[in-house]
Amino acid sequence: MLVSAGSWEGQRPKVISTWRNTLANAAAWEILQAGGYALDAVEAGARVPEANPDDMSVGYGGLPDRDGFVTLDASIMDEKSNCGSVAFVQGYKHVISVARRVMEKTPHVMLVGKGAEQFAAAQGFRREKLLTPQAEKAWREWLKKSEYKPYHRPGQHDTIGILALDSKGCICGACTTSGMAFKMHGRVGDSPIIGAGLYVDGEVGAATATGVGEEMIRIAGSHTVVELMRQGYSPQLACEEAVKRVIRKRGEEKAKSLGVAFIAMNLSGQTGAYSTTNDFEYTVSAPGILHEVFKSSSYF
Ligand code: ASP
Questions:
Q1: Measuring CA to CA, which residue among 26, 56, 16, 6 is closest to residue 173?
Q2: Angstrom distance (rounded) from CA 19 to CA 155
Q3: Element of type H or E holding 72
Q4: CA 65, 110, 218, 24 torsion: positive or negative?
Q5: Partner of 265 at 20 to 30 A CA spacing, among 25, 152, 232, 239?
Q6: 36 lines ligand 1 (CB under 6 A)
Q7: Domains and CATH numbers, the chain
Q8: CB 97 less than 6 A from any atom of ligand 1
Q9: pLDDT digit string (tens) for 246-266?
Q10: Angle (deg, nearest 10), helices 38-51 and 95-105
Q11: What is the pLDDT of residues 96-146, one digit of tens each?
Q12: Residues 290, 278: Cα–Cα separation, whole Å
Protein backbone atom coordinates (compact mmCIF):
# COMPACT_ATOMS: atom_id res chain seq x y z
CA MET A 1 0.00 0.00 0.00
CA LEU A 2 1.26 3.50 -0.75
CA VAL A 3 0.53 6.00 2.01
CA SER A 4 1.74 9.52 2.71
CA ALA A 5 3.99 10.58 5.52
CA GLY A 6 2.12 11.76 8.58
CA SER A 7 1.76 11.39 12.31
CA TRP A 8 4.34 8.60 12.52
CA GLU A 9 7.12 11.09 11.73
CA GLY A 10 9.38 11.74 14.69
CA GLN A 11 8.47 8.54 16.57
CA ARG A 12 10.65 5.76 17.82
CA PRO A 13 11.51 3.00 17.46
CA LYS A 14 11.59 3.28 13.73
CA VAL A 15 12.95 1.45 10.68
CA ILE A 16 13.36 2.74 7.14
CA SER A 17 14.67 0.64 4.26
CA THR A 18 15.15 1.06 0.55
CA TRP A 19 12.58 -0.37 -1.84
CA ARG A 20 9.65 -2.64 -1.03
CA ASN A 21 11.35 -4.46 1.82
CA THR A 22 8.39 -5.20 4.06
CA LEU A 23 9.69 -8.56 5.29
CA ALA A 24 13.09 -7.10 6.13
CA ASN A 25 11.40 -4.31 8.08
CA ALA A 26 9.25 -6.87 9.88
CA ALA A 27 12.34 -8.79 11.00
CA ALA A 28 13.99 -5.59 12.23
CA TRP A 29 10.77 -4.45 13.88
CA GLU A 30 10.42 -7.64 15.89
CA ILE A 31 13.73 -6.83 17.58
CA LEU A 32 13.00 -3.14 18.08
CA GLN A 33 9.55 -3.58 19.54
CA ALA A 34 10.98 -5.99 22.12
CA GLY A 35 13.31 -3.18 23.22
CA GLY A 36 16.28 -4.59 21.24
CA TYR A 37 19.35 -2.89 19.80
CA ALA A 38 19.24 -1.09 16.44
CA LEU A 39 22.35 -2.95 15.25
CA ASP A 40 20.69 -6.34 15.77
CA ALA A 41 17.62 -4.98 14.01
CA VAL A 42 19.41 -3.81 10.85
CA GLU A 43 21.41 -7.03 10.63
CA ALA A 44 18.26 -9.16 10.98
CA GLY A 45 16.51 -7.02 8.37
CA ALA A 46 19.35 -7.25 5.85
CA ARG A 47 19.53 -11.04 6.22
CA VAL A 48 15.99 -11.42 4.89
CA PRO A 49 16.63 -10.50 1.24
CA GLU A 50 20.10 -12.09 1.48
CA ALA A 51 18.38 -15.45 1.98
CA ASN A 52 15.62 -14.93 -0.60
CA PRO A 53 16.41 -16.52 -4.00
CA ASP A 54 13.69 -14.45 -5.66
CA ASP A 55 15.44 -11.25 -4.74
CA MET A 56 17.89 -10.93 -7.60
CA SER A 57 19.90 -7.98 -6.32
CA VAL A 58 20.95 -9.21 -2.89
CA GLY A 59 22.66 -12.34 -1.53
CA TYR A 60 21.54 -15.82 -2.63
CA GLY A 61 19.94 -15.52 -6.06
CA GLY A 62 21.67 -12.23 -6.86
CA LEU A 63 22.46 -11.60 -10.52
CA PRO A 64 26.07 -12.46 -11.35
CA ASP A 65 28.80 -10.33 -12.88
CA ARG A 66 29.48 -10.49 -16.60
CA ASP A 67 31.64 -13.60 -16.15
CA GLY A 68 28.87 -15.44 -14.32
CA PHE A 69 30.12 -15.03 -10.73
CA VAL A 70 27.85 -13.79 -7.93
CA THR A 71 29.96 -11.35 -5.91
CA LEU A 72 28.53 -9.63 -2.86
CA ASP A 73 29.21 -6.36 -1.00
CA ALA A 74 27.93 -5.29 2.43
CA SER A 75 28.53 -2.81 5.24
CA ILE A 76 27.25 -2.15 8.74
CA MET A 77 27.76 0.77 11.14
CA ASP A 78 26.70 1.54 14.70
CA GLU A 79 25.98 4.69 16.70
CA LYS A 80 29.57 4.88 17.98
CA SER A 81 31.05 4.93 14.47
CA ASN A 82 32.17 1.33 14.69
CA CYS A 83 31.89 -0.09 11.21
CA GLY A 84 32.68 -3.18 9.17
CA SER A 85 32.40 -4.09 5.54
CA VAL A 86 33.18 -6.79 3.01
CA ALA A 87 33.42 -6.56 -0.76
CA PHE A 88 33.79 -8.88 -3.73
CA VAL A 89 32.81 -11.90 -1.65
CA GLN A 90 31.83 -15.17 -3.34
CA GLY A 91 30.12 -18.18 -1.77
CA TYR A 92 28.67 -16.66 1.43
CA LYS A 93 25.15 -15.28 1.34
CA HIS A 94 25.00 -13.52 4.71
CA VAL A 95 27.68 -10.97 3.96
CA ILE A 96 26.02 -8.49 6.32
CA SER A 97 26.85 -10.81 9.23
CA VAL A 98 30.40 -11.27 7.92
CA ALA A 99 30.70 -7.44 7.83
CA ARG A 100 29.50 -7.29 11.43
CA ARG A 101 32.16 -9.83 12.44
CA VAL A 102 34.81 -7.72 10.69
CA MET A 103 33.62 -4.81 12.82
CA GLU A 104 33.50 -6.75 16.06
CA LYS A 105 36.31 -9.29 15.77
CA THR A 106 39.07 -7.59 13.81
CA PRO A 107 41.03 -4.33 14.14
CA HIS A 108 40.00 -3.54 10.55
CA VAL A 109 37.02 -1.98 8.78
CA MET A 110 37.06 -3.71 5.42
CA LEU A 111 38.01 -7.13 4.04
CA VAL A 112 37.71 -8.00 0.36
CA GLY A 113 37.74 -11.02 -1.93
CA LYS A 114 39.63 -14.12 -0.87
CA GLY A 115 40.65 -12.58 2.44
CA ALA A 116 37.03 -11.86 3.33
CA GLU A 117 36.07 -15.41 2.31
CA GLN A 118 38.84 -16.92 4.45
CA PHE A 119 37.67 -14.82 7.37
CA ALA A 120 34.05 -15.90 6.83
CA ALA A 121 35.11 -19.57 6.80
CA ALA A 122 37.18 -19.10 9.96
CA GLN A 123 34.15 -17.52 11.62
CA GLY A 124 32.06 -20.59 10.83
CA PHE A 125 29.97 -19.25 7.95
CA ARG A 126 28.85 -21.96 5.53
CA ARG A 127 30.09 -21.77 1.95
CA GLU A 128 27.40 -22.35 -0.66
CA LYS A 129 26.58 -21.85 -4.30
CA LEU A 130 24.79 -18.54 -4.76
CA LEU A 131 24.01 -18.62 -8.48
CA THR A 132 20.42 -19.85 -8.84
CA PRO A 133 19.01 -21.29 -12.09
CA GLN A 134 16.86 -18.15 -12.42
CA ALA A 135 19.88 -15.81 -12.13
CA GLU A 136 21.96 -17.99 -14.46
CA LYS A 137 19.17 -17.87 -17.05
CA ALA A 138 19.05 -14.06 -16.86
CA TRP A 139 22.85 -13.94 -17.26
CA ARG A 140 22.78 -16.25 -20.31
CA GLU A 141 20.13 -14.02 -21.82
CA TRP A 142 22.31 -10.98 -21.16
CA LEU A 143 25.32 -12.74 -22.72
CA LYS A 144 23.56 -12.83 -26.09
CA LYS A 145 24.12 -9.09 -26.43
CA SER A 146 26.72 -8.59 -23.68
CA GLU A 147 25.91 -4.92 -23.73
CA TYR A 148 27.89 -3.50 -20.86
CA LYS A 149 26.36 -0.45 -19.31
CA PRO A 150 25.24 0.28 -15.79
CA TYR A 151 21.51 0.29 -15.61
CA HIS A 152 18.67 0.80 -13.26
CA ARG A 153 15.78 -1.62 -13.27
CA PRO A 154 12.57 0.36 -12.87
CA GLY A 155 10.07 -1.11 -10.47
CA GLN A 156 12.34 -3.90 -9.27
CA HIS A 157 13.56 -4.39 -5.79
CA ASP A 158 17.24 -3.46 -5.51
CA THR A 159 20.02 -3.24 -2.94
CA ILE A 160 18.73 -3.07 0.61
CA GLY A 161 19.92 -0.21 2.79
CA ILE A 162 18.23 -0.28 6.20
CA LEU A 163 18.38 2.22 9.07
CA ALA A 164 16.97 1.70 12.56
CA LEU A 165 16.46 3.95 15.58
CA ASP A 166 15.81 1.93 18.73
CA SER A 167 13.79 2.85 21.78
CA LYS A 168 16.94 3.96 23.62
CA GLY A 169 17.78 6.38 20.81
CA CYS A 170 20.66 4.43 19.21
CA ILE A 171 20.78 4.66 15.43
CA CYS A 172 22.49 2.03 13.24
CA GLY A 173 22.55 1.06 9.57
CA ALA A 174 23.29 -1.79 7.18
CA CYS A 175 23.55 -2.18 3.44
CA THR A 176 23.89 -5.38 1.38
CA THR A 177 23.88 -6.10 -2.35
CA SER A 178 25.01 -8.24 -5.24
CA GLY A 179 25.84 -4.94 -6.93
CA MET A 180 25.13 -3.87 -10.47
CA ALA A 181 23.96 -6.82 -12.52
CA PHE A 182 26.55 -8.09 -15.06
CA LYS A 183 29.20 -5.72 -13.71
CA MET A 184 32.88 -6.23 -14.57
CA HIS A 185 34.48 -9.00 -12.51
CA GLY A 186 36.04 -7.31 -9.49
CA ARG A 187 33.82 -4.24 -9.60
CA VAL A 188 32.87 -2.94 -6.17
CA GLY A 189 30.06 -0.45 -5.74
CA ASP A 190 29.09 2.03 -3.07
CA SER A 191 27.36 -0.39 -0.70
CA PRO A 192 30.47 -1.60 1.21
CA ILE A 193 32.17 1.82 1.12
CA ILE A 194 31.58 3.56 4.42
CA GLY A 195 30.45 7.10 3.60
CA ALA A 196 29.21 6.21 0.11
CA GLY A 197 26.52 3.52 0.44
CA LEU A 198 26.08 3.87 4.20
CA TYR A 199 26.95 6.31 6.93
CA VAL A 200 25.88 6.63 10.56
CA ASP A 201 26.78 9.29 13.10
CA GLY A 202 25.27 8.67 16.54
CA GLU A 203 25.12 12.43 17.19
CA VAL A 204 23.25 13.24 13.98
CA GLY A 205 21.56 10.39 12.12
CA ALA A 206 22.11 7.94 9.29
CA ALA A 207 21.81 7.61 5.53
CA THR A 208 22.05 4.86 2.95
CA ALA A 209 21.85 4.64 -0.82
CA THR A 210 20.75 2.55 -3.77
CA GLY A 211 21.30 2.90 -7.49
CA VAL A 212 24.39 3.40 -9.61
CA GLY A 213 27.07 3.08 -6.94
CA GLU A 214 29.77 4.89 -8.88
CA GLU A 215 27.72 8.10 -8.48
CA MET A 216 27.38 7.68 -4.71
CA ILE A 217 31.11 7.06 -4.36
CA ARG A 218 31.89 10.17 -6.43
CA ILE A 219 30.14 12.45 -3.94
CA ALA A 220 30.68 10.35 -0.77
CA GLY A 221 26.89 10.34 -0.84
CA SER A 222 25.71 8.92 2.48
CA HIS A 223 28.32 10.90 4.40
CA THR A 224 27.20 14.00 2.54
CA VAL A 225 23.59 13.42 3.61
CA VAL A 226 24.60 12.98 7.26
CA GLU A 227 26.83 16.08 7.19
CA LEU A 228 23.98 18.12 5.72
CA MET A 229 21.75 16.95 8.56
CA ARG A 230 24.47 17.99 11.01
CA GLN A 231 24.28 21.47 9.51
CA GLY A 232 20.54 21.60 10.16
CA TYR A 233 19.02 20.17 6.97
CA SER A 234 16.00 17.93 7.50
CA PRO A 235 16.56 14.31 6.36
CA GLN A 236 14.35 15.06 3.35
CA LEU A 237 16.25 18.19 2.27
CA ALA A 238 19.58 16.45 2.89
CA CYS A 239 18.62 13.56 0.55
CA GLU A 240 17.42 16.07 -2.05
CA GLU A 241 20.66 18.05 -1.92
CA ALA A 242 22.80 14.89 -2.33
CA VAL A 243 20.80 13.74 -5.37
CA LYS A 244 21.01 17.23 -6.87
CA ARG A 245 24.76 17.21 -6.33
CA VAL A 246 25.02 14.06 -8.47
CA ILE A 247 22.85 15.70 -11.11
CA ARG A 248 24.96 18.90 -11.09
CA LYS A 249 28.15 16.86 -11.55
CA ARG A 250 26.74 14.67 -14.33
CA GLY A 251 24.47 17.15 -16.08
CA GLU A 252 20.72 16.61 -16.40
CA GLU A 253 20.92 14.70 -19.68
CA LYS A 254 23.22 11.97 -18.37
CA ALA A 255 21.70 11.94 -14.89
CA LYS A 256 18.30 10.98 -16.33
CA SER A 257 19.62 7.50 -17.05
CA LEU A 258 21.25 7.13 -13.63
CA GLY A 259 19.11 5.72 -10.85
CA VAL A 260 20.43 7.27 -7.64
CA ALA A 261 18.44 7.34 -4.40
CA PHE A 262 19.06 8.10 -0.74
CA ILE A 263 17.07 7.51 2.43
CA ALA A 264 17.92 9.12 5.76
CA MET A 265 16.78 9.35 9.36
CA ASN A 266 17.78 11.72 12.15
CA LEU A 267 17.89 11.10 15.88
CA SER A 268 14.36 12.47 16.30
CA GLY A 269 13.10 9.74 13.97
CA GLN A 270 12.34 12.11 11.10
CA THR A 271 12.95 10.45 7.75
CA GLY A 272 13.67 11.50 4.20
CA ALA A 273 13.94 9.91 0.75
CA TYR A 274 14.74 11.28 -2.68
CA SER A 275 15.66 9.82 -6.04
CA THR A 276 16.66 10.86 -9.53
CA THR A 277 13.94 8.65 -11.06
CA ASN A 278 10.26 8.42 -10.13
CA ASP A 279 10.19 4.67 -9.48
CA PHE A 280 11.90 4.63 -6.10
CA GLU A 281 10.00 3.28 -3.10
CA TYR A 282 10.97 2.83 0.51
CA THR A 283 9.50 1.03 3.50
CA VAL A 284 8.87 2.46 6.97
CA SER A 285 7.95 0.83 10.26
CA ALA A 286 7.04 2.87 13.34
CA PRO A 287 4.43 2.57 16.09
CA GLY A 288 1.09 2.42 14.29
CA ILE A 289 2.52 2.13 10.76
CA LEU A 290 3.92 -1.28 10.20
CA HIS A 291 6.03 -1.92 7.14
CA GLU A 292 4.29 0.60 4.90
CA VAL A 293 5.65 1.28 1.42
CA PHE A 294 5.97 4.91 0.33
CA LYS A 295 6.69 6.35 -3.07
CA SER A 296 9.69 8.66 -2.93
CA SER A 297 9.69 12.11 -4.46
CA SER A 298 12.18 12.48 -7.30
CA TYR A 299 14.02 15.01 -9.46
CA PHE A 300 12.85 13.71 -12.83
N1 ASP B 1 24.28 0.57 -5.31
C2 ASP B 1 24.48 -0.77 -5.77
C3 ASP B 1 25.82 -0.85 -6.46
O4 ASP B 1 26.17 0.04 -7.20
C5 ASP B 1 23.46 -1.26 -6.73
C6 ASP B 1 22.03 -0.99 -6.44
O7 ASP B 1 21.65 -0.28 -5.52
O8 ASP B 1 21.21 -1.53 -7.17
O9 ASP B 1 26.48 -1.85 -6.32
A1: 16
A2: 9
A3: strand 72-77
A4: positive
A5: 152
A6: no
A7: 14-298 (3.60.20.30)
A8: no
A9: 999 999 999 988 899 999 999
A10: 150
A11: 999 999 999 999 999 999 999 999 999 999 999 999 999 999 999 999 988
A12: 23
